[in-house]
Amino acid sequence: MANEEDDPIIQEIDVFLARSLLEKLYLFQYPIRPASMTYDDVTHLSAKIKPKQQKVELEMAIDTLNPNYCRSKGEQIALNVDGTCTDETSTYSSKLMDKQTFCSSQAASNVSRYAAAVYKKGELHLTPLHGILQLRPSFTYLDKADAKHREREAANEGGDSSQDEAEDDVKQITVRFSRPETEQARQRRVQSYEFLQKRQAEEHWVHLHYYGLKDSRSEHERQYLFSQGHGLAENTELIKSPSEYLMMLMPPSVEEENEKPVAPSNVLSMAQLRTLPLADQIKILMKNVKVMPFANLMSLLGSGTDSTAVLRCIQQVAMLVQGNWVVKSDVLYPKDTSSPHSGVPAEVLCRGRDFVMWKFTQDRWVVRKEVAAVTKLCPEDVKDFLEHMSVARINKGWEFMLPYDEDFVKKHPDIVQRQHMLWMGIQAKLEKVYNLLKEHLTPKKQEAQSAHPLLVSGEQRVNMAKAKVKQNYGQLEKAFQKQKAEMKSNDTSSKMDVSSIHIKEEPVSDEEPMDTLAYESMNNGVVNGLHAEEDSMDSLNGHLPGGCIDRVAQELKAFVSSTFKKQFVLTLSELKRLFNLHLASLPPGHTLFSGISDKMLQDMVLDTGCKQILVPFPPQTAASPDELKVYALWEAGDTYDQHRQVLLEIFSKNYRVRRNVIQSQLSQECGEDLNKQEVDRVLK
Predict the structure, then answer these.
(1) Quick check: is 351 in a domain?
(2) Strands of 579-633, DSSP E
(3) Total domain count, the chain
């Protein structure tokens, strides 16, 4: 009360609501200018508006006679934008930057609380604002200057090229028929940024006339800011109680409810998830999480969910690994899909991932090189498998990401037994597919893991490997003698000698270094199923019988012949990649799985009528040695054999040749003039 007495009311002002400019009045906020210059002094050349978007563009003249105006800079900008020619399309017809464009943006989306007020003769007249727009300089003329610069550069480059290069190439046109658009696809298209931009661009500009502050038309329009009638009938909205009037003048702040963004098709909120059937809930959760303890799954499904029903559903989409549930491979890789990295079909990916899961049922640690050597998949696919269910440890390998769930194993022994039987069946299939050795089937004995990873020097690892090789030498000797006896019984003509055995001493450790495995060094000496030593004709599991060698040679020759009849020219690296994909598509137990060395593959390429092209690549090239070895089919039996041989001779002298040189050389060597289409066919 004391404060109110110290602050007495000095004057009461009548407030009127003007309606003449309702939904027509905008507030423009201009950039800051010097106090000596008002916007009334500025000449407005043109103005236009898009009413639906509330977008305005104003074009204002620049005072080029002002002492602060840099004339040389203005002339340079005009020259960059319009060039030397002046026509109707020029932005600056006076060859001087004498105008500037301002483009608007909305300062506030909700302007219902703002009004323009005019005070006159003790009365305050309010007109609600329809929009508040901030005007900022537009620099589209710079885009025009850049476009002119690119056109000049393109013209200069085109002038330097030869006449042959300037000819328009005949290009093949592919005609595609669009499928009928579904309702979901239409909604996504309508909500896309590109569609909204196109829709905004389609709205036509409405050109406006600008009237200055002292213009008679401005004076006339300014009168509409005053309420046209002071009668009570005209201002019934203001006949309110003081509290209602304040509520109407200053409504409570209500946050704008924006439209919820459309979530991706593979994302569901927990509220949406719980509306689905229980089996679908579990499948979606496992597909996204991939590895989960049963207790966590029950907490995500909400209270009141029957654990028996959950156990029945989880076994359809996941397998038990160390007491935790891991999503099945066929859920992640459905039928008729392929790897995004190598293009390997889903069936091969599922086999490889099942092998990784099975390895984790035997041990907490898995070595990536061992997985790659057995599955013969590319490093990216193997890394994806391991990242689904394990964590990389330096100098250790890959450790299963969750601890052993003893509580679940003790509570549900029947489930554990059933899962064990399933894993036994999967193990039997993997043994047939991958020809698993005894060392792959026996779990490795892990030493007690310390809290910190053990760092082992290179010399220590070599010594450990040598000791392990000496320790296992006796076992290798027995295995060889047994294999030799079997081979003698199968093929008496095949003789083998113990001295021909070559034991390669290299670090064989359960520990894995940092995950820096490159594509060329995968499989620990095996690249795409090919042994890395070129001077070795041994298979991965020992020598092959004579009959088996013939079958392998026939299969390999058939693959090389069919590949070069399709491709004609291949590098060794690309050939090995194609051979790896071919191996992945073969059925289990195929003869080519016995092991093919690089030397065998290259010899077979030469035996099938191909030649190595010694292309003189530049010394500073970053290509690998396998990428520098180029092989080409010398005789394909078609009409272009001679042309192809001439072309290969040309590239054996230079790795980069102009097209007109190739065409003239072909015409000279073959004694006939080839047209452009025939040359293109030979080059292709």
Answers:
(1) yes
(2) 596-597, 610-613, 630-633
(3) 3
